[in-house]
Amino acid sequence: MSALLLPALVLGPLAAGAVAAVVPRERGRVRAAVGLTTAALTALACAVVVGGVATAPGHEVRVALAGWEPPLGIVLRADAASAALLVLTTLVGVAVSVTVAVRDDAGGGPAFWPLWLGLWAALHGVYVTQDLFNAYVLLELVTVGAVSLVALGKGRSAGPALRYLFVAVVGSLLFLLAIALVYAEAGTLDMSAAAGRVAPGPLLTAALALTLVGMGAKMALFPLHSWLPVAHPAAPAAVSAVLSALVVKAALVVLWRFWVALAPAAGGAAHVLAVASGVAGSAAVLWGGLMALRQRRLKRIVAYSTVTQVGYLALVLPLMAPGGEAARAAWSGGLLLVVAHGLAKAAMFLAAGVLTAAYGSDHLEDLRGAMRHRPWVVAALGVAGVSLAGLPPTLGFAAKWQLLAAGVESGQWWWVAALLAGGLLTVGYTAVVLRAVSAPADAGEQAPEPPPAAVPTVQAAVPLALAVAAVVLSVLAGGLAGLVADTAPRGLA
Amino acid sequence: MNPDAQVHESVLPVVMLLTSLVPGLVIFFLREDQVRLRTTLNMAGAVAKVALVAVLVPLVVAGQVQRAAFPWLPGVELVLTADTFSLFFAALSSLLWLVTTVYAIGYLEGAPHRSRFFGFFSLCVTATVGIALAGNLLTFLFFYEMLTLVTYPLVAHRGTRAALDGARTYLAYTLGGGVLVLLGVVWLTVLVGPVEFTAGGAAAVAELAAERPGTATAIGLVLLAGLGVKAAIFPLHRWLPVAMVAPAPVSALLHAVAVVKAGVYGIVRVVHDVFGLRVFADLGLLHVLAVAAGVTIVYGSLRALTQDDLKKRLAYSTVSQLSYVTLGAALLSPVATAGALTHIFHQGIMKITLFFCAGLFAEVLGLSKVSQLAGVARRMPLTAIAFTVAAFGMIGLPPLAGFVSKWPLALGGLDAGEPWVLAVLLTSTLLNAAYFLPVIHTLWVRPPEEGARWVTEPHRVRSIEAPASLLVPALITAALTLACGVFAGWDYSPWQIARIIAEGSYP
C-alpha cells in the first residue's frame, strides 16, 4: 500500500496544481477547494507512507517506477529521514493551505494555489528520490515555485525575488557540476550505487565541496545567507512560512543525502569540509542571532532566526563525522531539529501574518497591545520561540539534547558552545518580540495602542495549533528519534 | 532514594502533576468574568494536590516508593518518583500553593488578566512538583527549565516598565544558569548514562569520579554554578531583589514555594543523590560550596540591613537564608543535612508569611517602605503579629520553626569539624536581628506619622483589619511557623522527616 502511494505523493499534488492552474483566476474559491482537497488527501497518503516506513523491515519503503530498476529506471525510496520530513511537510502544508483558504490575501492571490501545489509535489520528490539528476531537477522545480511565490508579495517583492533566483540558480549550477563529476567517476546517477564506485581524490573532494557551497547558498548558510532576510519577509505570510519551514530543508536534505552517500569515501578531505561546514554553521548561529536582536520588524526577526537555525543544521555534518554513538545522536537530533524548526518557524511566520493583517504593519512599534488584543497569536510566537531556543517542554529541546549529546560524546566542544550560545540568543530575540507586543502599561510618552483589524478566527488559530504540535510532538520524540537513529549513517570514521 | 525501599510502578506521581496542569490549561481558556469557575478550578486542584500528598506521605515513610517512567529519547527516560525527599518538597510546595492561591484570589480581585495569571500560576506549581518528583537529572532539568519559562509572565504580570525590566533580568539570569545545568546534565548523561537519584550517590558517578576526577569536578562545578543562580548564591543572586517588582503572590512563589527552592533542592539532589557527599568532598567541591554559601549568608544579611523598601529587605533576607540550606547540604554531618532539609520547609513557611504581610501592608494601607510602617500595628494588629512571629522565626528564636533548623546547622558545623560555620551563623543571627527588630519596633512602638493617609482616613471599627482572603493565609502560615517549632517531635513533622531523609545520605 505505502509503496503504491509513494509515487502518488509526488504526482498527486502536481496534477492538482495543473488542475488549479486551469481554473480561471476569478474562481478563487474553486482553486482553494482544489487546494484543500489535495492537502487532505496528501495528508492521508503521507500518514500511510510514514506508517509503512515505521513498520517496514529496515525502515524503508522502495518502489522502482514501472518496474524498471536502476541504472535504467528511477527508484523512489522513503526511509526514516523521509518520514520525518513528510510529517513536517504535511503539518505545515495543511496549516498553510487552511490559512490561505480562509484568507487568500495571506497567499498573495489566486496564483498561489498552482504554484504551491507544484512546490509541494517537488518537495515530496526531493525527500524520496535516489537519483542525483532527479534531485537536481526537483530542486529546480522547488526553486521556480518558491521564487514565483515570493514575487506574489505586495509592493517591492520583485527585487528580492530576483535576488533569490540568482543565488538559487548559482547554487543549482554548482550542484549540477558536482553531479557531473560524480557521474564521470562512478558512471551512475544512483546515489547508493555511486557510493561504491568512487575513490578518494580531488574529483570527489571537489564534488563534495561544490555541493556544500551550492546547497549552502540555497539554504542560506552563512556567509551566503544575505538574500534570505530580504526574500523571506518580502513574500506573503503563508509563503514565508513555506520558504523558511520547508524550502530551505529541501536543499538541506539533498546536501545530507549526498554527504551521507559519498563523504565516507573521501577520507580526510571530508573531515576538513565537515569542519568548514561547522565553522560556517557556528558563525551563522551567532551572526543570525545578533542580527535578529537588532531588527525592529517582526518578519525580519523571524527571517534572521532561520539563518541561525540553518547554522545549527550545518553543525550536524561535523557532529556526525566521528561515527558510532555520536553519529546516531547527531543524525536523529538533526532530523528532529528539521521538524522542530519547521513547525516553530511556520507558526512564527503565520503568526506574523495574522499580526500584519490586524495592524497593517509588522514594525514592532505598531504591534503594541497585540498581547491584549491577540493573546493566542502572541502565545504561538512565545511557544514557537521556546521550541527554537531548545527549551522544554518542546520538540526543540529533544533535538538540542541529541545534538549536545553528540558533541559531548565526541568531545567537539566548540560546536557545543555554539549550540548553547544560540539558544540564549533565541530566547533574547523572542523576549524582544514579547516585550514589544506587551507594551508597558505605564509608558505615558507612547501613543495609545492601535486597534487591530478583524482577522478570520481560523487564521488566527493556525499558528497556535502548529506551536502546540511542537509541544505534543516532544512527547512522541522518542519514537521518531528511535526510528531515525536505527538507520543512522555511520559517519566518516 | 532509600536503596532498600520497595519500588511500585504507579500513576500517582503523574496524577500529582495533572492536578495542577489540567486546571491551569483550562483556566487559560476562561473569560475574565468567569470568576467562580476559575476559583473552583484553582481551589479544587490545590486541595486535590494536598490530599494526594497526605495520602502518599505515610506510604513513602513506610518505605514504599511510587515510580512512573516514560521512554523519551533512545536510552533516556523521563522518570517521576515519589520518594521521601521528593514528597517532602512536594508537600511544602502544594501546601503553600494552597494558601497562596487563596491569597492570590483575594489579592487580584478585579484586576485585569486573571485567567492568564492563574493559568501560569498553576503551570508554575506543576513545574515545581515536577522538579520535586523528578527521578533523574534529565527529568529534573525538564521541569527546571519549564519553571523558568512559566514564571517569567508572572514576574512581568503588571506590564509596567519596571515589571518588564525585572522580568528580563530574571529571565537572563535563570536561563543563563539553565544553560549550565543543561550542559552538566548532558555531559554526565553521555559519560555514565541517565543518572537516577540514589541516596548516598549513584554508583556510576562514583566510578567516574574515581577514574576521571578532573572531568567529574568540572561537571560538578558546572552543575553547581547553574543551580546556584536559582539558589541565589553570591554573585549569582542579583535577579532576586530585582524580581520583587512582581505582585505579592508571585513574590511568595519566587521566595518560598517554587523558584529559589528549586535551586537549593537541585543542589541537595546533585550533592547528595547524584555524586554522594563523600565523593563530592573527595573532589574538593564540598568545601567550595560551603564557603560560597557562608559568604552569601553574611553578604545577604548585610545588604538587607540598608534596604528601606520592605520587599527588598525581605528579598536580601531570602538570599541569606537560602544559603543556610546550601551550607547545611555542604557539611559532612547527618545533623547538618537534617537541619538543611528542615530549613527548606521552615524558610518557606516563614518567608511566605513575611511576603503575605508585606503584601497586606501594601494593599490595605499602600505602604511599602519600612520607614512608613510606624505604628501600623495599631491599625493592623493581626498582620503585625503574623509578621512578628515570622520575623522572630527567621532570627531563630525558640520555640519557632527557625530555631529547629538553625540549631542542628550549628551543631552540624561543629560535628563536621568546621567551627567557622558557627561564627557565620552567629554573625548572621545578629544581622537578622539587626534588620528585623527595627521593623518590629517600628510597627509596634513608634507613633504613627503625622498625617499618614491611614491615620486620617476613618476605619470602620467593626470590620476586620483586612480582606479575609489576604489575612487568613498569613495567619495560617504564621501559626505553622509556631507549630513546626513546638511540635518538631511529632512523627510527621518536617524535622523528623528531614532526619529520615538525611540518614539515607550516609550509607
UniProtKB/TrEMBL annotation, chain A:
<dbReference type="GO" id="GO:0008137">
    <property type="term" value="F:NADH dehydrogenase (ubiquinone) activity"/>
</dbReference>
<keyword id="KW-1003">Cell membrane</keyword>
<feature type="domain" description="NADH:quinone oxidoreductase/Mrp antiporter transmembrane">
    <location>
        <begin position="130"/>
        <end position="425"/>
    </location>
</feature>
<keyword id="KW-1133">Transmembrane helix</keyword>
<keyword id="KW-0472">Membrane</keyword>
<feature type="signal peptide">
    <location>
        <begin position="1"/>
        <end position="20"/>
    </location>
</feature>
<dbReference type="InterPro" id="IPR003918">
    <property type="entry name" value="NADH_UbQ_OxRdtase"/>
</dbReference>
<feature type="transmembrane region" description="Helical">
    <location>
        <begin position="458"/>
        <end position="485"/>
    </location>
</feature>
<feature type="transmembrane region" description="Helical">
    <location>
        <begin position="203"/>
        <end position="222"/>
    </location>
</feature>
<feature type="transmembrane region" description="Helical">
    <location>
        <begin position="265"/>
        <end position="289"/>
    </location>
</feature>
<protein>
    <submittedName>
        <fullName>Sodium:proton antiporter</fullName>
    </submittedName>
</protein>
<dbReference type="GO" id="GO:0042773">
    <property type="term" value="P:ATP synthesis coupled electron transport"/>
</dbReference>
<dbReference type="InterPro" id="IPR001750">
    <property type="entry name" value="ND/Mrp_TM"/>
</dbReference>
<feature type="transmembrane region" description="Helical">
    <location>
        <begin position="80"/>
        <end position="102"/>
    </location>
</feature>
<dbReference type="InterPro" id="IPR050586">
    <property type="entry name" value="CPA3_Na-H_Antiporter_D"/>
</dbReference>
<feature type="transmembrane region" description="Helical">
    <location>
        <begin position="333"/>
        <end position="355"/>
    </location>
</feature>
<feature type="transmembrane region" description="Helical">
    <location>
        <begin position="413"/>
        <end position="437"/>
    </location>
</feature>
<dbReference type="GO" id="GO:0005886">
    <property type="term" value="C:plasma membrane"/>
</dbReference>
<keyword id="KW-0732">Signal</keyword>
<feature type="transmembrane region" description="Helical">
    <location>
        <begin position="133"/>
        <end position="152"/>
    </location>
</feature>
<feature type="transmembrane region" description="Helical">
    <location>
        <begin position="109"/>
        <end position="127"/>
    </location>
</feature>
<keyword id="KW-0812">Transmembrane</keyword>
Automatic annotation (TrEMBL), chain B:
<feature type="transmembrane region" description="Helical">
    <location>
        <begin position="348"/>
        <end position="368"/>
    </location>
</feature>
<feature type="transmembrane region" description="Helical">
    <location>
        <begin position="420"/>
        <end position="445"/>
    </location>
</feature>
<keyword id="KW-0472">Membrane</keyword>
<comment type="similarity">
    <text>Belongs to the CPA3 antiporters (TC 2.A.63) subunit D family.</text>
</comment>
<feature type="transmembrane region" description="Helical">
    <location>
        <begin position="117"/>
        <end position="135"/>
    </location>
</feature>
<feature type="transmembrane region" description="Helical">
    <location>
        <begin position="12"/>
        <end position="30"/>
    </location>
</feature>
<feature type="transmembrane region" description="Helical">
    <location>
        <begin position="42"/>
        <end position="65"/>
    </location>
</feature>
<feature type="transmembrane region" description="Helical">
    <location>
        <begin position="215"/>
        <end position="236"/>
    </location>
</feature>
<feature type="domain" description="NADH:quinone oxidoreductase/Mrp antiporter transmembrane">
    <location>
        <begin position="134"/>
        <end position="430"/>
    </location>
</feature>
<dbReference type="GO" id="GO:0005886">
    <property type="term" value="C:plasma membrane"/>
</dbReference>
<keyword id="KW-0812">Transmembrane</keyword>
<feature type="transmembrane region" description="Helical">
    <location>
        <begin position="170"/>
        <end position="195"/>
    </location>
</feature>
<feature type="transmembrane region" description="Helical">
    <location>
        <begin position="466"/>
        <end position="490"/>
    </location>
</feature>
<keyword id="KW-1003">Cell membrane</keyword>
<dbReference type="Pfam" id="PF00361">
    <property type="entry name" value="Proton_antipo_M"/>
</dbReference>
<keyword id="KW-1133">Transmembrane helix</keyword>
<feature type="transmembrane region" description="Helical">
    <location>
        <begin position="314"/>
        <end position="336"/>
    </location>
</feature>
<dbReference type="InterPro" id="IPR050586">
    <property type="entry name" value="CPA3_Na-H_Antiporter_D"/>
</dbReference>
<feature type="transmembrane region" description="Helical">
    <location>
        <begin position="85"/>
        <end position="105"/>
    </location>
</feature>
<dbReference type="InterPro" id="IPR001750">
    <property type="entry name" value="ND/Mrp_TM"/>
</dbReference>
<feature type="transmembrane region" description="Helical">
    <location>
        <begin position="280"/>
        <end position="302"/>
    </location>
</feature>
<feature type="transmembrane region" description="Helical">
    <location>
        <begin position="380"/>
        <end position="400"/>
    </location>
</feature>
